[in-house]
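Module 6 notes. Inverse folding takes a fixed backbone as the condition and produces residue identities as the prediction. Think of it as a translation problem where the source language is geometry and the target language is the twenty amino acids. Below is one complete input and output pair. Work through it position by position during the lab.
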């Protein structure tokens, strides 16, 4: 006898144990979803085998018709769900039915944990929304038996558990490949032994399944792939269920894009944009989740060639008859026909998104908050689509509280304004109060507030919109004089101040030395005494910070230009002191130079250049003032 031939008993992974406690103990209205979950698994198993059979036809020999059979036994109080899909061997069972594989289940546990912390109790009702895969069987059963045989293998196995911490695996008999799940129904779940109930549940949740789901001779579902049906025949409810199934998601689709394209390469796409951010949206793999089918046969998810990574929030299916079935997944990715599909899909999605942006601006704000940061990656990666992507981009700005488009911005530009001004930083609330904005605000010139990390990067690639260059207000000179804005009272006095400020500038320059690239009088400040900016052609402060954080920039960074506000009362007093005969020995002036520099750094979210010296100087200056 082989090592695995006898009955073995195992404990569930800790998380599974915890989940099972919750599942088994919960008496809630949505228990019927157990059937959705088990039928969904059966359908996935058929899909997987159909793919494997392309290159290994012997796996399906004798039985090419995939199906899922449900049978009820009122006497024995069992429900059986049987499929002739790929099946599982001993190791598969051990790996999958004792651990938590699915993202949804992990997410469910996480929400429970959060609930625990927030209000001391968990929201168990969410279980229906999430579904917990296979384990939901224990909501209605006090024992679950799984008899399964993997396609191409001879041995069959019985997995069995009462959901109380342990499960067993032992050799079994099964005359063909596939899996049979038998649920021993709990006393309080007898309703599920009625045919009408089962019929209704399948129709509600599993109508979209592409294989026949049968109860005796009767097929309960539509049994044709949902994407092959006419768009107008599909109800919102059916879309929602299919989306949940295909995306393993729990929210509702925000937008559905379903169409058939006939041409050099023909295909059908049924794509969904989620209404909330999927969990892995910002993971470094940037994986796609649209499933590729060739003539109804599931080939692969995460086909890098199918859609650009900046559309990785899309879920759904693309099915083409024109791709070759019998080439490998890897080769498929470089197929020129796939590239054609990709171009077509990308444009279609952009068109639909734009329509929505125009027709439903409020809804669009939510979409943009969810996925804008991802879409903007497209500005870097898809040069040919840049203009079309810019059209759907939205920004917060110094004008109003909502999102603005670039067209809005350009339409509001002031007379004499040549550039689209922006400020980038990590924290939207902080940059909205940045000193750099003062002069712009005073003149009523709108500035875009960019706080997604990706903003700094696409700004390196996109130089203009409709002929108007983008200009960072934290870099280079700010010549606001040429722009006709709302008149400010300070504007006229500037010349008088200019003369007396020169000696102060010289003194600060002398004192700070190489710490700054230059010191100059500012045109952008109205309230704050100082700010730091990057020289034209140098790297923007925020970009430098981002690169450093990601280890892509070493060293101390580039020296900045210190701008001082000639109209500020304190600056004027300092300018007076700098004009005195013994200014060279004025220690307060020297300390002030450093303190001004540090103050500008702090306003940028940095720490003082030398925190200890900063403390000493601050104390000295305060002391002399008291
Ligand atoms: N009928 C079945 N035939 C073959 N394998 C199955 C079957 N049912 C479950 N499995 C295996 O058990 C695993 C766990 O199933 P479970 O429903 O808990 O999560 P999942 O289906 O993987 O999750 P998700 O739906 O998020 O992909 C499946 O991934 C699959 O490998």
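Target side of the pair, the amino acids:
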């Amino acid at each position: 006898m082989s090592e695995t031939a006898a009955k073995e008993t195992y404990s569930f992974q800790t998380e599974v144990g915890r989940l099972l406690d919750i599942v088994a103990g919960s008496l809630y209205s949505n228990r019927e979803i157990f059937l959705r979950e088990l039928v969904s698994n059966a359908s996935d198993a058929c899909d997987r085998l159909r793919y494997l059979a392309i290159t290994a036809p012997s796996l399906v020999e004798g039985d090419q018709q995939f199906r899922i059979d449900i049978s009820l036994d009122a006497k024995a109080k069992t429900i059986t769900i049987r499929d002739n899909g790929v099946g599982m061997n001993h190791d598969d069972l051990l790996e999958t039915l004792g651990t938590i594989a699915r993202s949804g289940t992990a997410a469910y546990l996480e929400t429970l944990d959060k609930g625990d912390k927030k209000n001391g109790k968990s929201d168990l009702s969410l279980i229906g929304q999430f579904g917990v895969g296979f384990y939901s069987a224990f909501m209605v059963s006090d024992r679950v038996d799984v008899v399964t045989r993997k396609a191409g293998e001879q041995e069959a196995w019985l997995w069995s558990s009462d959901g109380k911490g342990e499960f067993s695996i032992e050799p079994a008999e099964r005359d063909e490949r596939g899996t049979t799940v038998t649920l021993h129904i709990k006393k309080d779940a007898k309703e599920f032994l009625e045919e009408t109930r089962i019929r209704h549940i399948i129709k509600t949740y599993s109508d979209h399944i592409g294989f026949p789901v049968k109860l005796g001779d009767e097929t309960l579902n539509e049994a044709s792939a949902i994407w092959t049906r006419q768009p107008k025949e599909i109800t919102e409810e059916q879309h929602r269920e299919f989306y949940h199934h295909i995306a393993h998601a729990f929210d509702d689709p925000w937008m559905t894009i379903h169409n058939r394209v006939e041409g050099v390469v023909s295909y059908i796409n049924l794509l969904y944009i989620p209404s909330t951010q999927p969990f892995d949206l910002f993971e470094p793999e940037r994986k796609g989740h649209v499933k590729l089918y060739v003539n109804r046969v599931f080939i692969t998810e995460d086909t890098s060639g199918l859609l650009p990574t900046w559309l990785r929030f899309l879920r759904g299916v693309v099915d083409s008859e024109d791709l070759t079935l019998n080439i490998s997944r890897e080769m498929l990715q470089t197929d020129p026909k796939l590239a054609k599909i990709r171009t077509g899909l990308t444009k279609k999605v952009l068109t639909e998104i734009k329509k929505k942006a125009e027709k439903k601006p409020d809804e669009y704000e939510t979409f943009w908050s969810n996925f804008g940061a991802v879409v903007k990656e497209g500005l870097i990666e898809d040069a040919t689509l840049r203009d079309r992507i810019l059209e759907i981009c939205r920004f917060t700005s110094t004008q109003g509280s909502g999102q603005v488009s670039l067209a809005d911005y350009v339409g509001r530009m002031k007379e004499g304004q040549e550039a689209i001004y922006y400020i980038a930083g990590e924290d939207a609330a902080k940059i909205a109060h940045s000193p750099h904005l003062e002069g712009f605000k005073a003149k009523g010139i709108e500035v875009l507030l960019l706080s997604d990390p990706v903003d700094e990067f696409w700004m390196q690639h996109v130089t203009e919109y409709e002929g108007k260059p983008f200009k960072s207000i934290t870099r280079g000179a700010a010549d606001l004089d040429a722009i006709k804005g709302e008149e400010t009272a300070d504007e006229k006095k500037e010349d008088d101040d200019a003369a007396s400020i020169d000696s102060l500038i010289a003194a600060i320059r002398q004192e700070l030395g190489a710490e700054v690239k230059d010191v100059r009088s500012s045109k952008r400040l109205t309230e704050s005494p100082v700010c730091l900016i990057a020289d034209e052609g140098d790297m923007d402060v925020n970009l430098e910070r981002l690169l450093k954080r990601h280890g892509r920039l070493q060293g101390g960074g580039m020296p900045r230009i210190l701008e001082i506000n000639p109209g500020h009362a304190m600056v004027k007093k300092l300018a007076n002191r700098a004009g005195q005969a013994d200014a060279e020995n004025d220690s307060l002036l020297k300390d002030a130079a450093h303190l001004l520099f540090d103050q500008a750094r702090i306003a940028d979210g940095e720490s003082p250049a030398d925190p200890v010296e900063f403390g000493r100087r601050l104390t000295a200056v305060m002391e002399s003032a008291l």
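Reference fact for the lab report: The chain has 21 helices and 22 strands.
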